[in-house]
Structures are given as C-alpha cells and as structure tokens.
Amino acid sequence: MLEPRQGGLRRLRRRSDPEATGQPPTRAAVRNAKIVTLPVAYAARRAGGLGRRAMGQPRHGVEIDIQARTAQHMFEVLGELKGCATKFGQLLALYELALPPELSEPYQEALSRLQDSAPAMLPGAVSAAMAANMGPEWRDRFCDFALRSSAAASVGQVHRAVWEDGRAVAVKLMYPGARESVHSDLEQIRRLAPLATVFAPGADTRALADAFADCISDELDYAKEAETQRVFADAYADDPDFVVPGIVHQEGDVLVSEWLDGIPLSRVIATGAQQEKDRIGLLVLRFVMSSSVRTGMLYSDPHPGNFRVLRDGRLGVVDFGACPVFPIGFPEVVGDLADAAFNGVDADVEAAMRRHGFIADGQDFDIVALRAVAEPIREMFFPHTIRLTKPWLREQVRRSIEPSLSNVGRQLTSPPEYTPIGRAILATVGVLAQLGTEGPLRDELSTALPGFAQALERFHLGEGMRRPVTDASDSATPVTMNS
What we know:
Blueprint: H1 6-16, H2 28-54, H3 59-81, H4 83-92, H5 101-115, H6 123-134, E1 142-145, E2 151-152, E3 156-163, E4 168-174, H7 178-192, H8 205-216, H9 222-235, E5 242-243, E6 247-251, E7 254-258, E8 263-264, H10 265-271, H11 274-295, E9 307-309, E10 315-317, H12 330-343, H13 346-355, H14 367-380, E11 386-387, H15 390-400, H16 406-411, H17 419-435, E12 438-439, H18 441-448, H19 450-461
Parallel strand pairs: 5-10
Antiparallel strand pairs: 1-3, 2-3, 3-4, 4-7, 6-7, 8-9, 9-10, 11-12
C-alpha cells in the first residue's frame, strides 16, 4: 500500500480535529492546555518586566504594558474556548471599570473581541449538530437556514432562519460537547481565579469564580430556558416598552425563537445620542427590576449583548438561560436594610446585616470600613435624578477593592439564593454606567421595592426607623451622613 502524502495526512487530521471545523475545543486536555498558557505567560511577562526595569524603563510603563498584554491574552483564550470561560470573562469585564483610563482602552478592545469571538462552527459542523438534535431531515422544518452564524453565545451560536410557517426565527445551537467541557472549565477557572488579580488587586477573585460556578449550570438546559422564555414572553406580551421573542420550537440542544430586528445595545453605547442612552438605560433598569414582579424570576444576565433597540423604540430582550426563581421575601429584606442605612445608626446597619445572613454568627465586622465604601452609594439615592457614569463606577469599584478595606469584604457573606441578585445588580449598573444614564433611577427602584421607597421617605420626613431600637444601638454614634 502506498503511503499517503504528507499533505493528505494534514488534511485528514484537519477533518478529524474539531477545531479545524470551527468547533471550539471540547477535549479536556486541549482546553486545559489553553488555559494553562495564561498563568505561564503572565509569569514570563513579570520576569521580563523585572529585566526591563533593571535596564532603566519606568516602572509605571512596564506595569501598564504587562496588564494590557495579560488582558488581551486572557480574553483571547477565554473567547476561543467559549462555554463558561467566556461567561467568566464577561463577569471580569466589570473590573475593567476599575482601571485608570490609560489601562482601560486595551481591556475594552479585548472585551469587544470576546463578545463576538471566533471560532464559529463551519457549515459542515452546523449541519451535523442540527441533525444530531432534530434528525437527518431537520432542513424540512425550515424554509431557509443560514449555515453561517449571526451571533455567538457562551455555549453555542445563533443562526438566522425562516421556520416552516414563514416566520423569521433565531436558532440557538449548543456547541457539541459543550456540556462536558463546562465541568472541566469550572475546575480550571477556579485555578485561574488568582490571575484575575491583574484586573483588581485585593479583590476576592476566588469568591467571584465560585459564585460564577453556581450560576452557569442552568444555561446548559435549553428545555428549561424555553419554558422560562415562554413565561417572560407571556408576562411582557403587548408591553409598550419591551419585546420578548416567543418560543417557536425546542428540541435537544436547539432552541428556536422569533427573530428580533434591532440595533445592538453595544452600538447605542458606542455611537448613540445621550438622550437616547438615557432612555434606554432607564428601560434596562425597568426590565430587570420588573422581571421579578411580573414573572417570579430574576433576569440576572443583563449584559449589552442581550438587548436590541427596535425601530419603534421598544427594548428587545433575548437569552433567558440565567433566570432563577426570585427569593420570596427579598423585597422586605431590602426594605429592612434600607431602613437601617437611611434612618439608623451603625449598630442598626450591622444588626440588620446579621439578621439577614450577610454577616456570619460570631464573625467580627468592621462597620467603619463598610461605611467608607457604602456612603457614596447611599448618598446617590438622595436626589431625584441620578446619573451613572464610568468614572463614578470606576471609583466605587476601586474603593471596594482597596487593599486597606479588603478585610470588610471578606467579613461579608451572602445566602446562596442571593448570588444571582448580586450578579444582576453588578451587570445592570455596569450597563447603565457604560450608557452614562441620567434620569429618575430612584423611581424605578422604588416601584419594584416599596420597602426601599418607604425607608427613603421616612428619611426625608425625619421620622426615623419604623421599629423602636432596643439593643446597644441606642447609644451608638449615628452614621455621619445622617448627622
């Protein structure tokens, strides 16, 4: 038998290699090897930086170069792997806001590549995946199907198509092997977490990775996502402000929903007029806040890629894989904490936080350090009109991860059911800050959280807390801003 030519061998390898088809790598060894390159390369940059400084290069310039190169490398690798690696990159994106302006630009460029990162599955891989989920005659269900993807998702990609009844639809297809790769990714991301201190020195990045791991599993269940999206579509049907596309079909790892034509929110952020940014920012906040009231679930993944601005001005919302049940009684918890923060003293705040599980029993707590972090946020709710900007949020993030205040962060805890709420708050504030939103943000919060509104009203009327204080807080020093 004749030996195959070397070119033929290479072609055979490419055909058998998932990466050659554009499919993200799913083998644990391949994925782990890619992730391992991150700390190795970071260590090499640090070592090289010492040599450059020894040769007389300024320390500040060397540090900027190391951080920029690390950011670019990290987001490129996470984007290529997709899955929960990409989701972790999206969560880390908030920390870009903590960077000084001279560092933030490289991070923003890397993040924009991450949102729509390659590789996408090539047509042959798409056809095979669709057949595996919907059967060999899957094309009969569509009048038209674009084999090239129109958008990327964390564990799959979206294709534009026309359903058999003539409706324009979005077909969300999970990457083959994505479910298996997620478990390996989660372990690797936990190991990768210390490297994320390049974004936020002093931050508890391990806790961030653990919280992320708790949230990702629901996004692998397209049947559950379809049921959730049906609930949201019914709740927002004929709404004057919002559009949630209806579910057309779900089978295996394929989810088919109505197509939304609109301007991506990322484009509004980049080029929109400020008046339009203000309007859209209010709508984003209103949707997130109203979701729990209307559906009993929380829309906990409000990043720019999940919103579209329709021609009629309404806000289209997609991707309902991360919508946990909203904890019963949480609005009352917010009201209690707000009452202590606005109308109480330091001891009242600490007592309320302990009462609701944010400080563990027997745990010491530095209430003064917490006040230093929280006072600017608390003060923000006093005026009727609020403006969120990237510099403002950058300052709050930097204050919260300041090493001298990091102990108070480690002293705090949270009931597990509140983790998605924290994720939603951070992501929503990040979107509003990117838009530079100005408007009656306080009113949007008050509508969904009446206890918060009542506490703030008592503050303005000077009525004090709604319950008599019966503990040591009677003799405590009031919070400075109440004085």
